[in-house]
Model the fold of this input.
Amino acid sequence: MSTSASQNIPPIALPFVSERAKKLLDVVERFVHEECIPADPVFFSQVGTGDARWHGHPSIIDELKKKARTLGMWNMFLPKNHYKNGPQFTNLEYALMAEYLGKSTIASEACNCSPPDTGNMEVFARYGSPAQKDQWLKPLMEGEIRSAFLMTEPNIASSDGSNIQLRIERRGDYYLLNGSKTWASGTGDERCKVYLVMGKTNPDHPDQYRRQSIILVPSDTPGMKIHRMLSVYGYDDAPHGHGQITFTNVKVPLDALILGEGRGFEIMQGRLGPGRIHHAMRAIGAAEYALEWLINRLNDERKKPFGKRLSEHGVLLEWVAKSRIEIDASRLIVLNAAIKIDQMDAKFALKEIAAAKIKVPQVALEVVDRAIQVHGALGVGQDTPLASMWAHLRTLRIADGPDEAHLQQLGRRENKQRKDEVKRRLAQQQAKTEFLFHSMGVDRKELGAAKFNAKL
Amino acid sequence: MSTSASQNIPPIALPFVSERAKKLLDVVERFVHEECIPADPVFFSQVGTGDARWHGHPSIIDELKKKARTLGMWNMFLPKNHYKNGPQFTNLEYALMAEYLGKSTIASEACNCSPPDTGNMEVFARYGSPAQKDQWLKPLMEGEIRSAFLMTEPNIASSDGSNIQLRIERRGDYYLLNGSKTWASGTGDERCKVYLVMGKTNPDHPDQYRRQSIILVPSDTPGMKIHRMLSVYGYDDAPHGHGQITFTNVKVPLDALILGEGRGFEIMQGRLGPGRIHHAMRAIGAAEYALEWLINRLNDERKKPFGKRLSEHGVLLEWVAKSRIEIDASRLIVLNAAIKIDQMDAKFALKEIAAAKIKVPQVALEVVDRAIQVHGALGVGQDTPLASMWAHLRTLRIADGPDEAHLQQLGRRENKQRKDEVKRRLAQQQAKTEFLFHSMGVDRKELGAAKFNAKL
Amino acid sequence: MSTSASQNIPPIALPFVSERAKKLLDVVERFVHEECIPADPVFFSQVGTGDARWHGHPSIIDELKKKARTLGMWNMFLPKNHYKNGPQFTNLEYALMAEYLGKSTIASEACNCSPPDTGNMEVFARYGSPAQKDQWLKPLMEGEIRSAFLMTEPNIASSDGSNIQLRIERRGDYYLLNGSKTWASGTGDERCKVYLVMGKTNPDHPDQYRRQSIILVPSDTPGMKIHRMLSVYGYDDAPHGHGQITFTNVKVPLDALILGEGRGFEIMQGRLGPGRIHHAMRAIGAAEYALEWLINRLNDERKKPFGKRLSEHGVLLEWVAKSRIEIDASRLIVLNAAIKIDQMDAKFALKEIAAAKIKVPQVALEVVDRAIQVHGALGVGQDTPLASMWAHLRTLRIADGPDEAHLQQLGRRENKQRKDEVKRRLAQQQAKTEFLFHSMGVDRKELGAAKFNAKL
Amino acid sequence: MSTSASQNIPPIALPFVSERAKKLLDVVERFVHEECIPADPVFFSQVGTGDARWHGHPSIIDELKKKARTLGMWNMFLPKNHYKNGPQFTNLEYALMAEYLGKSTIASEACNCSPPDTGNMEVFARYGSPAQKDQWLKPLMEGEIRSAFLMTEPNIASSDGSNIQLRIERRGDYYLLNGSKTWASGTGDERCKVYLVMGKTNPDHPDQYRRQSIILVPSDTPGMKIHRMLSVYGYDDAPHGHGQITFTNVKVPLDALILGEGRGFEIMQGRLGPGRIHHAMRAIGAAEYALEWLINRLNDERKKPFGKRLSEHGVLLEWVAKSRIEIDASRLIVLNAAIKIDQMDAKFALKEIAAAKIKVPQVALEVVDRAIQVHGALGVGQDTPLASMWAHLRTLRIADGPDEAHLQQLGRRENKQRKDEVKRRLAQQQAKTEFLFHSMGVDRKELGAAKFNAKL
Done:
């Protein structure tokens, strides 16, 4: 018998989930299972073919948005400790919902919870001026417009934000922007009305993390040129898209700067924590969904290679078990990180967030790859969501810095934080051991010493 | 700056830990760090060499036991829901303590929390008759005697308990035991006074899991012969030891049976759940301790291969990070399982316990192996606890059934429990998709269909 | 300094390579590096967008074919032991060339060495009637037409060929075909003029591997309908394409059958061996090419995350080393298999071919994935060949049966072939040991036996 | 049916093996299978218990040596290109024999082919003075004495030989040695009569690889003290042993220096190449032997967990297959390296030797670990050779430098050797692509460009 989402919350997380959140979680689950997943193929067909893919957007998304809002599923991502007028859920509570949203391509957008809008709305909510909130946060929260966050640049090591080249120069009463951006996700969509652009205002500041600022640029500002869209393993992600854009003498008024000059890093850091939790939980949802496809395939009566149903093949059962274990472990890591963000703040949960950022996509990719493998050729094609899911999960190992950069930072931090204590303690323990041998009058028993000491 | 054990409890677990448990946890931490770890090498030297290793036991263990008891660290493993007269901690609370006990070879015994006594005491507490409790549980809880659990037999697949061969035949007013047991851990120790022996009383019972019983056999009962001790890699684990024993017409009174004929499996199942949590948490403690050795080595000023300190080598920092992530994920899995046992019972937490049983030893082995590798030859020898730690952790992938058996069961159970729901839901989703295409008047966009359909 | 392809042949393989083959190998290397790789992006641009992608084919391929033929690179795959009129290279010699062809999308076709034509030509050469050779083999060898091999069907376990459903019924002087095929690679191309179709002629034959036949169907035969093309992770592979096709009362003359009724499996087996070698060596070439991109990236002066060039990051150097080791090991496996095919026949090299089939794609996928990872977002997009390469290599773990089926067969065969010898030998060795103890008068030293035996 | 060792040589290696070598290979195979493996347990029992383990050596080894010599199996390791008076086999030919020797603990010594004597004899043969050869090489080649190679020191990073601290100071007509050595393998054996000691004669030489020398020290020289023996995962390896030794004003005559001052590194490099091939091939033999135990266990009629024989469990068959593939791949790597050493010299085969050094132990460890796992508790104990085999193979990942150091060197070398060529070629290819677009008048097709270019 099937259990509801709220009944499947790991016992260890239950004390952190309000009754109100449990109820909405079950609504989200049904909405995703009964409305969004079935609508995904319709969405893709509505996108169309050829150049038409970049014009307009599928009508089904608007219908789902209406339904979602009616059912109370709207902007759930806005954490209660940062925004008083949102739906008042904690990061932990939204994390549980985000898992379900991650099972469908369009569910997040249907609930106005899709990146990069979520992170951008958080930026507006935490750091925006009243005028900025009025102009951009309001329509974003209403789901009327969309937005983009432009950080990555071509030809630099994007894992290290201090490398950013785009120049934001103050010229009297405006800023002048010159440079180029790539992988600007969402810029293909005609509803995308505003870009949050990271650039350098203070290239000579002695602190390399105080040189950057974030500035708002309406998408129809002259001087910006979208050259093309980038693909993800053959998927163009229309109409959303990932654009490559150049800025040539783009003029923006002074009050378009968020928070002030040199505060770009600070904003970005605040933006990343919860966003990584969202990404991670959606990835877990994708992994769960892939596991469903895997189980479905194992029990397909028509598939009996070598006389046995797939579910009787031990190797495949081991895949189910390993997937189960690793998905569950990953979820606990993310939920624990979310709780730490709720209790303290993202900056006190860097280790936990990094662990989630690194581990979850690897687990999810492996589960999805297993599901693809049991489907054979069907798995790599367009008739299951698996191949597309894999391709998009794969980008999570790169986005916001590659795994390797995060592993280095995590390892370096752990080493730095613990080395003095560890060295001191091991030394003390060894000294105490020596003391014990001495005080107790016990001889160290050394291998072969009886013979070799006698000899000499 | 160093933080105490209670401050390091993952936030997600905190609601389940009483203040009293936090206080004792910090006492345990200090005891292990300051008393037990330094005493480990003394213990090994006191064991002696050659045949002397099997006579008596190191005096340092008795001193530590006294200290531990004085400080309130005694029998903490006995879960409050099963035993009213114990120290009243939950499985979750003890799990946190067991992690620290796992850092030292002798800490568990010092607190009277070492296997197989712990599981045996649980058996007595849950299933023993008043007389059995009086005779055996009392001295066990006082730490006056030790015990063994004899299940594994030579030449059968021990992962499947239904294979057990040792016969327990009723003959009038006694039982007659014939057969052989191996890997009887603890039987080398002269303090080991009682064996819990699993055997077949009802070999013809139609239910293959009702054929076994567990019976108590005092270690000096005539007819039992210990042939030799078995080693773990090159370690003999004296004086504890792992014995190979034959039973030849061993007579035991009728009231030596626990709970009744045919209830051996039931007892064993109840025994395994918490025991696996203990093993897993001790393994996590071992992994944390190995990580400390690893970090200590990375910061050894004398080690600068190729001009860089080890802590500047990226590959080794990645080891630190990966160890950190996987240890933390493993701990959450185990704690979540412990909570489920506390809230329901072990039999409702089979999936969670199995996950812990499978994942934790693999993670711990990998962390310890990394610590060995950075120590070079030093790591495989006797001057660090690492090689011995690895060898003993390795047995956890085999004990109580090999990983592969648990993976099969876990995979099979997951598949069985979920297949109907999953198949139904995917089918419903696909039907709903068809309905949407139809009702919305949208055509499925098929790749190349424009051309190829036109052609025909 | 750079060395030529013939100088890079592993010393162990050199005795098997003629001077003539070495010379052509160097020609192939230069052709691929200087003509084909640069032409790949032109090819993709010429394919066009939208429906145009399925009409015609890029002109650049015709130019490359002309050049290749002039330079003597034509049909090199045809093994000298099966076809007297080909270019007379061994499987080993062609394998070395195929590695280079695998670095470019279009190089194989440029040399008339691209699948599925290669396998189909081998079928015609080995099993075709003179008339069949005249009608189809001749234009195929001239590169005037292309062909497809239709085996996979929807909704059956394709790893087990005995499941095939398409019916080939004899009706007087023709065969009637009914059924459906999917993943029919090459059917998108207008130059594809003939299909080799696997179906069941003798569904009731007691030997399940004698029920299938292969029959030739011209691509314009009435009754066949291509419904759509299938994608590989978002890539449509136009104009080649992977078609889904139904057969409704398709009539084919009796002499369209190859070799005779019930011999489909035999033909397919003969076809697979060399084809798997080709696939494997092309995959190795792809891996080598990805490693070049990886090295190129490591030495990009513009990429200095955290102040160090990528080539100074130890983790990435380890990737280079591991890639080097595994690519080299894989190549030796494939070359050894090719030699065995040359010396005996594919059916005596099943173990070696299976090893290559399983190991090479996994190694290549890992190397390409590493190259993607160091390129960050650039790696998943269209500006390097890496993402497309990965997606297509991924299908090799599925095509001709999933890895898991091959691993089972390989494991089962190894177990079956060796178990009797192994059991016998180990038993004999143990008996000999007993004899030695006895004859030499040596006692078995058993751990702890001195004490425990004394006690009893 | 069983095939002989010479029939199992991979086809690709056959051209390099003389008929004479094939014949002896078959003799070696039978000797190992029929004499040595059965004698291994006798050897261990003869070693005895307690301190007796370090006195004398088992008589069975002397008997086997006699047999081996009679059968022509003596000093086969001495490569024909370095020693005219040896048995005249190539490194490749001996490698094939070494694989079989690796299946038994005592087979190598029985054929006078056991390390560290082999490497030491090579040193004497290549670099020794006539007097040194007469005094030491002669009795070593006769198997009358044994020897040790003292390089590793406590408390330094042994992966980087330039760190060596032991001082060798010239004082008039003798050298004075002060310092300490550890992991001096073989120093436990009373037959070990000479140590080759690496130390610093020229600590101030500007070239850090010209500071070291190797000097001969008879094992009874005053001033040396063996403090104890080191264990390997609990195994003491008596009577061979791994000693920790201090040197206090040890006097050695001037002519005890090999080759000359400052040439220690040169000698060590020449010594390592073939030695690594030997280690690797013995490890492959160990892996093959473990695979035999694995297969034996899978077919044990008494083992039927959950009603199926182990050989019917798919996961275990996959282990057989993966073991088969990786062992075979590893062997080809080593044989190819051996051929390169034979044709050129070890210093031209650094990449190939490093690959073997890194990959083979990892593969062997995994195969042995699988064999242990299927044996359950039996696998970690003393009743199979598996646990001991694993422990000793594990040291190969550390000995002569840890894997990580070799991976860094291999990665660095590959990167250095190839980066210029690779960068140049990719740049040329990209330039050629641009040229083709231009010359052919083809436009680059860019995703979405039609729309976005039109807009602006």
